[in-house]
Amino acid sequence: MWLTRHIGPAGWTFLFVLAVVATAVPYANQLLPPDHPWHASSYVVGLLGKYLTFALLALSVDLIWGYCGILSLGHGAFFALGGYAMGMYLMRQIGDRGVYADPLLPDFMVFLNWQELPWYWYGFDSFLFAMLMVMLVPGLLAFLFGWFAFRSRVTGVYLSIITQAMTYALMLAFFRNDMGFGGNNGLTDFKDILGFDLQSDATRCALFVASAAALGLGFMLARAVTGSTFGKVLVAIRDAESRTRFLGYRVDHYKLAAFTLSAMMAGVAGALYVPQVGIINPGEFAPANSIEIVVWVAVGGRGTLIGAALGAVVVNYAKTVFTGTFPEYWLFFLGGLFVFVTLFMPRGILGVADDLRRRFRRPSAPSARPADQPAE
Amino acid sequence: MAYPPTTDAILYLDGVSVSFDGFKALNALSFLIDPGELRAIIGPNGAGKTTMMDVVTGKTRPDGGTVLFEGKVDLTRQDEAAIAGLGIGRKFQKPTVFEHHSVFDNLLLALKGNRSPYRTLFARLGRDDRGRIDEILGIIRLGHVREEPAGALSHGQKQWLEIGMLLAQDPKLLLVDEPAAGMTDAETAETATLLKEIAQSHSVVVVEHDMAFVRELGCRVTVLHEGSVLAEGSLDQVSADHRVIEVYLGR
User: Which of A271, B30, B87, B192 is most buried, taking the most CB atoms under 10 A from its CB?
Assistant: First the structure.
């Protein structure tokens, strides 16, 4: 099968661990009594579920950065757009249970004295439509953005800067009340999803399992793409773009396809994130968020997929611990971590693991792998 | 030129000029390559050899002039990928192989075939393709390192791999930029033999500095100087030309 052709032993191990986690965590929450030492509180389930969506987001960035050399510093925008699409569905689900009990309009529209639902909110009462938009909206934006950027051969640091500008511009736009997305406060006070109460532990567990499934599927898809000849062309573009062109490959088409796919994956991650944290606001578009994603990937190991997912979980766990104990030092730690990883572990956690394995297997065997390219 | 020129030549350049910031890299350059021909292009540094290749492969747009492929396609209107698709392959002066890919994958990427993203996403490597790659690995003598990353090859091996990639691409016209650069004498001689073999079924243009190598090729030679053709003929003829001697030895 196309989807499973290139997973490999490490990939199957990753999927197996993911499946175990996806079973164990809901089990520990639902079936173990609250006083059991292994009981997972609903806070823990939500937290781990959030990590899984970040892992999927990291995977999407690794797909283009690790394999195609496109350093997007604006991927948080696609994540946020997916999140907003989900948030709009969840807002419509509230119905007349809002503070103002308006049967049609969400609270913030009533507050702004709006009389009718803006046209772009139509359809979001349907779950299927909303899920379609979760992928289509980020995908379309990435397609248009990529169409212009890649055709004009914008690469390297210039591309990174315009992705950063894109997410910043979107943040400013979404802060505006008249955009119709709740302005500053964003979308929140969600009640239920597909009729299930979002506050209940069972729904949280279901969202957790859905996040794990999405991560697993995203991983399989990314492996299938990177393992195919298409993926080899991506790496060729990363390492020698103009050479690839002289071989007859349309580099812009390849970049565009990878970028669009990656944005859609990020959108799905955002859509799973929002019901688990209960809010989406313009802060998600903040440029710093997008930079943080790149740090996760670098920490885990660029161009390995598994490393990206691992890096997202490790760094976010560190963030949870740090912001709980020394909140004011977190950003220093994050910056220091990035510098440390770039200088001393250029291939991330997975690269270190790989080197250790090599050393134990064959002492003093020279590495056949050429020195890695520095991050662009 | 008011009417489209008709020519049997596989590559036809007429009055091609390129200037960079006022410097004329090519100055009304005109020459043609016949189908199946092996041609060496020599000239001192800055004579416009590499710029000529850039124009033919679509990397540089000329300011004026005509560049026709197979007498009908105007190459000045095509981009790199389209030109490669028409059947023009290029080997760079500095060997550029895909360092992280294995030798086998380098050849696989070069292999003639559909280049669309959709096709490469779902393609499976057929037996014919595998056979063809094995055949090329034999020709370029890299069968024993097929699974090694190309970045781990020696300089000479990279040059050969790149020639192998050209073979895999199977273009109608090959542009080869200084294939013998940085090679040992033995490797240089082998490379000349290989190119002569290739020239039996393809048109080949070789840009070279190394006169011994050009002599080994034993083909017609075009001498470029300051962006236009200074002399053309056999190596003995052009090296007897007093203008060529002047350009090479200084006045």
Answer: A271
Whether A370 is in a domain gets the answer no
A368 in a structural domain = no
Quick check: A280 and A80 in contact, CB under 8 A?
yes
Contacts of A246 in chain B (CB under 8 A): 57, 80, 84, 89-90
| Chain B CB contacts of A374 below 8 Å | none
- H-type helices in chain B, by residue range? 49-56, 80-86, 103-110, 117-122, 127-139, 155-169, 185-199, 211-217, 235-240, 242-249
Beta carbons of B81 and A369 less than 8 Å apart: no
Q: Which of residues 256-285 of A touch B (CB under 8 A)?
A: 257
CB atoms within 10 A of CB A151: 12
- Is A374 inside a domain boundary? no
B233, with CB counted inside 10 A (0-12, 13-18, 19+), is middle
All domains of chain B in start order, with CATH: 11-249 (3.40.50.300)
A360 interfacial to chain B (CB closer than 8 Å): no
Start-end of H helices in A3-126: 8-30, 42-68, 75-94, 107-111
Residues of chain A with pLDDT under 50: 364-376
Q: Do B151 and A247 touch (CB under 8 A)?
A: no
CA distance A164 to B226: 45
Boundaries of domain holding A196: 2-361
Q: What is the structure's pLDDT at B2?
A: 45
Q: How many domains does chain A have?
A: 1
How high does pLDDT run on average in chain B?
A: 89
CB-CB contact of A185 with A281 (8 Å): yes
Cβ-based contacts of A63 with chain B (< 8 Å): none
Q: Quickly state the pLDDT bin for B61 (edges 50, 70, 90).
A: very high
Q: In angstroms, rounded to a whole number, what is the distance separating the alpha carbons of residues B61 and B75?
A: 9
Task: Give the pLDDT confidence of A67-115 residue by residue, as tens digits.
Answer: 999 999 999 999 999 999 999 999 999 989 999 989 889 999 999 999 9
Give DSSP secondary structure letters for B70-116.
Answer: TTTEEGGGS-HHHHHHHTEEEE-SS----TTSBHHHHHHHHSSS---
Spatial separation of the C-alpha atoms in residues A304 and A119, rounded to whole Å: 42
Q: DSSP state, B149?
A: B
- Specify the pLDDT at position B126: 85
Pick the residue from chain A with its C-alpha nearest to B125.
A229
User: Which ipTM was obtained for this model?
Assistant: 0.87
A43 Cα distance to chain centroid: 21
Q: What is the pTM of this model?
A: 0.91
The predicted pLDDT at position A361 comes to 76
Q: Which of B98, B111, B145 to mutate to test the interface with A (most CBs of A within 10 A)?
A: B98
pLDDT score at B8 = 83
